[in-house]
């Protein structure tokens, strides 16, 4: 297997070099950018397997980089791990609302960063498991083509959103706790990030539009996908 390519967009050179070294040690090919404009250019031209993105960048900030990556047809599915000093709950939610797949705050453990990066790469490069094409009323989910449609409309999901929708649909009628979703969709479990699931569900419902009610909230527990659309 070829080495996964990771793009690091970080304006603090010391942090950039530390992350670069640890990811290379973990077997990744690394691209680096010191500002948002260069980071966006590299992401668009090189199509990395993962972008590690700081929010506070000179020139174009990380939020705008994330927004443009999610708007681009060729970059929409690239997973994004936000690495930032903005540690507040609101900042984390904003990051997820923009389309980030994960969020790690500074100061951080390089080991945790590598583990999370590997988890993201693993879940986005491995095929979605759990059967073939799913058709429920106006909803179509096709894992082989990585396609999800609502009444013929492409939902344009990120890799994480697709896995979340697929997991819920495959387990239709069964309540899925936030902890289970973190483990099955994100690939690992960690405390204090239940809002990660909530924010992604909110984004998913928005994209589903008229089919948003297919995902039911089970208060105090998690979510359940309706058995029939």
Report the CATH C-level class of the largest domain.
Alpha Beta
The whole-angstrom Rg is 17 Å
Q: What is the percent of helical residues?
A: 40-55%
User: What is the first-to-last residue Cα distance?
Assistant: 39 Å
> How many distinct beta strands?
12
Number of domains as seen in the coordinates? 2
Query: What about the largest sheet?
Result: 5 strands, parallel
CATH-level-2 architecture of the largest domain: 3-Layer(aba) Sandwich
CATH domain topology of the largest domain: Rossmann fold
Overview of the molecule:
It is a single chain. By secondary structure, the protein is of the alpha/beta class. It has two domains: 5-125, 3-Layer(aba) Sandwich (Rossmann fold); 134-225, Arc Repressor Mutant, subunit A (Orthogonal Bundle), CATH 1.10.10.10. The chain has helices spanning 13-25, 36-46, 62-71, 89-98, 110-125, 159-170, 178-186, 194-208; strands spanning 5-9, 29-33, 50-53, 80-84, 102-105, 134-136, 139-142, 147-150, 153-154, 176-177, 215-218, 222-225. The strands form three sheets. A five-stranded parallel β-sheet has the order 2-1-3-4-5, with helices on both faces. The protein has a four-stranded antiparallel β-sheet with strand order 6-7-8-9, with helices on one face. Helix 1 (13-25) packs across helix 5 (110-125) and helix 2 (36-46) packs parallel to helix 3. The longest helix has 16 residues, at 110-125. The N and C termini lie far apart (39 Å).
């Amino acid at each position: 297997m070829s080495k996964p390519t990771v793009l690091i967009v970080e304006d603090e050179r010391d942090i950039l070099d530390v992350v670069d070294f640890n990811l290379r040690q973990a077997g990744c090919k690394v691209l680096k950018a010191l500002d948002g404009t260069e980071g966006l250019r590299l992401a668009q031209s090189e199509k990395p397997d993962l972008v590690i993105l700081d929010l506070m960048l000179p020139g174009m900030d990380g939020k705008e980089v994330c927004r443009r990556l999610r708007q681009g047809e060729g970059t929409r599915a690239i997973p994004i791990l936000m690495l930032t000093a903005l540690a507040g709950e609101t900042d984390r939610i904003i990051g997820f609302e923009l389309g980030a797949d994960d969020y790690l705050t500074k100061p951080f453990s390089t080991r945790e960063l590598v583990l999370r990066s590997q988890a993201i790469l693993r879940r986005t490069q491995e095929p979605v498991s759990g059967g073939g094409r799913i058709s429920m009323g106006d909803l179509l989910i096709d894992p082989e083509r990585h396609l999800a449609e609502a009444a013929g409309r492409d939902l344009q999901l990120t890799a994480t959103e697709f896995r979340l929708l697929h997991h819920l649909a495959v387990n239709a009628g069964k309540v899925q706790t936030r902890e289970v979703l973190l483990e099955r969709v994100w690939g690992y479990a960690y405390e204090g990030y239940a809002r990660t699931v909530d924010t992604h569900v909110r984004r998913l419902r928005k994209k589903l539009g008229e089919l948003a009610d297919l995902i039911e909230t089970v208060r105090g527990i998690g979510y359940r996908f309706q058995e029939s659309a």
